[in-house]
Amino acid sequence: MSTATDLRRVFSQNRAEELGYDVWQHYVVPPFYQELDLTAARKPRLIIGGRGCGKTMLLRYLSHQTMFSATRPTIPTDALTHIGLYWRADTQFASAMSQRGIPTDTWDAAFSHMAAVILGMEVLNSLTSIASSSCDAVCSEQLDQLDFHRLLVYSQKLAPAFRDLHPKLEEMLWEFQSWVNDVRGRTQPAFLPGSKFLQSLIKEIQRQIPSLQNAMFFVYLDEYENLDLRQQQIVNTWLKHSQTPLIFNLAMKRNAFDTLATTGPEALSDIHDFRTHDLEQDFLEDNFPIMAAEILLLRFALAGVPDLPIEPDVLRDPEKIDLRRTQDYRRAAISAAKALFPGLTNKELATTIFADGALSNQLRRRIERALSRRNGGTVQDFFRPAFPEASVITPALLSRPSTSPDDVRSEIEKLERGEDNKFTGATNWIHNNLVASVLQLYEPQSRACPFYAGFDAFCDLSRGNIRHFLELCYKSLNRDTSSAKPPIPPAEQAEAARQASAALLREVKSFGRKGNQLHDFVFRLGTLFMLAHQRPSLSESEQSHFTILRGTSDLSEEDREFFREALKWSVLYEYKGTKKKSEQEPETTEYVLNPIYAPFFHISYRKKRRLEITTDDVICLIRGKYSEVTELLRRYSGKWGLEGEELNPTLFPFVEPDSL
Amino acid sequence: MNISMKSGVSTAEWSDGPWDVALVGPAVDERGRAAIEFAKSRTGTTIVLEYRADSFTFLVDGRSIEADELSTGLPNLASAAFLLESTTLGFVEVFLACRALVRAGTNGFHLAYVEPKEYKTPRRREVLYRRAFELSSEVPGYRAIPGAAVILTDRRPQHGVFFLGFEERRLDVALEDFQTLRPSNCSVVFGVPAYKPGWEAHAFANNVRVLETKRLSGGVHFCGAENPAGAYEVLLEIKASLEKDARMVVAPIGTKPNGIGAALFAALHPEVGLLYDHPKRSAGRTEQISRWHLYHIGL
After folding, report:
1. Confidence band (pLDDT; 50, 70, 90) for B129?
2. Which residue, A37, A250, A377, B254, could crosslink A405 as a Cys pair with Cβ 3.0–4.6 Å?
């Protein structure tokens, strides 16, 4: 039987790197796995995706350590046609291989040598993995009989016996490291010729082990974008000239493919030289809830929770994906996930306002304030605990010049009598205003809004980021001290979401060279959206994305570069504009703030209405001085009719309280 | 090797020196200017040294040389009396100068350091980021230091040691960049006691989120913020506790005196790697002077 401790332990590991190279036990084969066409492909693949979308986990799943895992019960016969070699280049070390008074071609050869040594060891490791697995194509006796004499033409330091070759390559790596550290004092080692050496090594293996004659090796280079430009060109060259039995594949963040150039005259050409898979855009957006549910349930299964609607072995096996495609299965898995992390319905969300003294007082005050500016009606006309959803949105309706208090009262009475009314029906005020109204009421309170609770909310907050999803679950499990087992109360989940949001917001500072600037930008934009959410009338409710209108200044190349960086690090997401007011309008691009930051700013994570910002204001948000940003926020506060009471100064870092 | 340390509120009573050569960096604040003044007043030759991480070069009195050639770019390393003014020199300058001196066979040298009275905090975000310090105007990121670059790979046991300061992002970026360093194999070292009572809380508070979210569990150590000998001892202790073939990497992203301890340790243990992110120090990052320190390294 599982305990809360088991669950926390299982959820505490939310990065592929923490799980090692053999991820068989932990991996859920994504439902789109076959569409990736990775195992049958002969053309290099470019795998793109933001942080936490599962790139590294996928690459480690494809690597020999997992495919030929000792824990994998049966290994299909075609596994030998796809032997994955995972390589995450140490870019910090690689950075030392440039300049320093050493000619570029020497560094090129040095980088190729390093790749040959590291990947050469990986090829040998893959043979050991195969021999130790349930695959009977290779046994360890065959490995012991391998003779690599012919490779000595590349270097006399290599060893002919299989068991000796790996240590020799390792020694070559340390010798190489010593030389890179002291290029003046040490003798330059003889370099192995990169992919040519690897091809020779593989051919020797194939020649001597007939069962591997058709074996194919796929290098998966992770975090390609962190290599310097020249090293990327070398890798591009390997990619361009990939041929069986050695194919190079790359993984990187979005907007990170900085150069298509190779070291030769011909540049890489998309489709001709490689195929691109954008994990988030092409696959995750449509499949995230079921993937998240399956990953969640597998973790619960690993912690020993019984009676779950999944079979761990089925989740791990690409051959069994079809078993997971049925609607019944998907429904059962998602329902189980929702039962573990329950959310609130809109009605329940509205009811929380009446169940809490501070929140219901807040509602009364807001109705009262709205009425003080209008003629007609008392608080009691609109404060109706029997109709929580309708009551909660009345402050917004009463703040709109177009809606008179009499109209609102009349409609709420119709609702009461069960007649057609504007709260429901075609106009549906409740549908359009409820979430924004509840967020407004919770905003000045110390507790988190339960709008952020529930499996569905966690999926929306994560937006394809599995790491964020698992962090939300982990923090929820850590907070739930009321019982040893789920379901986790929504209030605890919401608080966990706020904590996770705050922690992940601080992490933005570590996002590359522009980390500090990105962090400031998120803060500024989030604050602007927070102000937008405080508009008394909620005439444009739940604004959490924006589009850029032309102002007096154009965005500079540096500003555009900043946007590329924001997209690369998934601080923003980009969409083609959806709401053109006329056909004559040019296409627009919409930018959505990563929804994981929504709980921190107390804003909606849903993509509902957009805010139109001029280029001048965007420039101010990107690189404006403190005083300029303060002025911008003051201007929007005035435009949106915000008064002191609508603003919570403790959450308003850019406008000092005494200025409100 | 032995490190002897002295400190005081001024240098007036000190009779140390004169030195033949002082290595100083550019001053960005009041204490830096005072430190350079002190170095100049007791030295025959003062050399301004500045490392450029993006090109692996040094500016030596405005003249560019390769970092790998520092030994030949400095005069009489083995015999001259050297003072390294570490308030103004960056970590890399201190490390490569120590390494050059050690390799040249010197008997010893001095390092000076001046503690600030206050660090400047930004006026904004007082509520949310009460402990936010902007000590660096730009952090280019982790880039190898010639002479202390190691290939990080989790196919061999390795252990990371992070000296921590006030800026949480430096640890965050390190753990993001070096994911082959397993959290269970990463130790952190806090500068406790801090320069001033209460300052240790800034380091704790500013790093705790990263320690928690990245689940670091390789051990927590403490050594005085102004104590290079303590830092050296902690590193010796950690090294002795590692598996025989484990590789050790040290990230000196805490106080400068702790960085001096790390620089000496790496200079004397060439198998140890250094991870460093080369922050550019913000102008006017500190205010006034608190205490002066002079360290003598006997070899």
Report:
1. very low
2. A377
* CA B6 vs CA A74, A218, B202, B292: distances in Å: 68, 59, 26, 8
Same-domain status, A418 and A556: no
Indicate the residue of A88, A95, A509 with minimum beta-carbon distance to B143. A95
Please state the pTM of the whole predicted model. Answer: 0.89
Question: Which of A148-157, A457-466, B134-143 is predicted with the least confidence, judged by mean pLDDT?
Answer: B134-143
What integer is the mean pLDDT of A84-91? 92
Per the structure, the count of domains in chain A is 3
Do the Cβ atoms of B146 and A181 come within 8 Å?
yes
Asked whether the beta carbons of B279 and B139 are under 8 A apart, the reply is yes
Domain ranges, ordered by start, for chain B: 2-119+284-298, 138-281
pLDDT in tens, A587-617: 689 999 999 999 999 999 999 999 999 999 9
**Measured distance CA(A248)–CA(A1) in Å, rounded:** 45
* A294 within domain boundaries: no
Handedness of CA A195, A196, A200, A206 (dihedral sign): positive
Give the pLDDT band (50/70/90) at residue A656: very low
Residue A108 located in a structural domain: yes
pLDDT value at residue A655 = 39
Contact B113, B291 (CB under 8 A): no
Q: Which of A259, A284, A309 is the last residue of a domain?
A: A284
Asked if A464 contacts A53 with a C-beta cutoff of 8 angstroms, the reply is yes
Query: 3.30.420, 3.10.50, 3.40.50, 3.30.70: which CATH number matches B138-281?
Result: 3.40.50
pLDDT computed for residue B282 by the predictor:
73
Domain of A129, in residue numbers: 4-284
Nearest chain A CA: its distance from B252 CA (Å): 15
Q: Do B144 and A95 touch (CB under 8 A)?
A: yes
Q: Parallel, antiparallel, or unpaired for β B247-253 and A45-48?
A: unpaired
Give exposure, B161-192, as e/b (b: 16+ Cβ within 10 Å): bbbbbbbbbbbbbbbbbbbbbbbebbbbbbbb
C-alpha to C-alpha distance for A12 and B30, rounded to whole angstroms: 46
> What's the pLDDT band for A514 if we cut at 50, 70, 90?
confident
Distance CA A464, CA A279 (A): 9
Do A417 and A553 belong to one domain? no
Q: How far is B37 from chain A (nearest CA, A)?
A: 33
Q: At what angle do helices A626-639 and A515-533 cross, to 10 degrees?
A: 20
Tell whether the model's pLDDT for residue B10 goes beyond 90.
yes
Q: CB under 8 Å to A574, separation ≥6 — which residues?
A: A567, A589, A590, A591, A592
Q: Is the pLDDT of residue B193 over 90?
A: no
In a mutational test of the A interface, the residue from B72, B128, B216 whose CB has the highest number of chain A CBs within 10 Å is B128
Of A284, A300, A320, which residue constitutes the final position of a domain? A284
Higher-confidence position of A336 and B194: A336
Instruction: Say whether both A161 and A269 belong to one domain.
Output: yes
A631-647: pLDDT as tens digits? 999 899 989 988 765 55
CA dist A542 to A288, A344, A444, Å?
23, 18, 17
Residue B18 contacts by C-beta under 8 Å, 6 or more apart in sequence? Answer: B42, B43, B44, B81
Is A448 within the bounds of a domain?
no
Q: Do A184 and B125 touch (CB under 8 A)?
A: no
Which chain A residue lies closest to B178 (C-alpha atoms)? A90
Task: Specify whether the CB–CB gap between B119 and B289 falls below 8 A.
Answer: no
Q: What is the pLDDT of residue A654?
A: 41
**A420 and A554 housed in the same domain:** no
pLDDT of residue A209: 97
The candidate with the shortest Cα–Cα distance to B288, out of B37, B88, B32, is B32
Residue A454 domain-assigned (yes or no)? no
What is the per-residue pLDDT across B249-299, written as a single tens digit (0 to 9) for each? 999 999 999 999 999 999 999 999 999 999 887 777 677 888 999 999 999
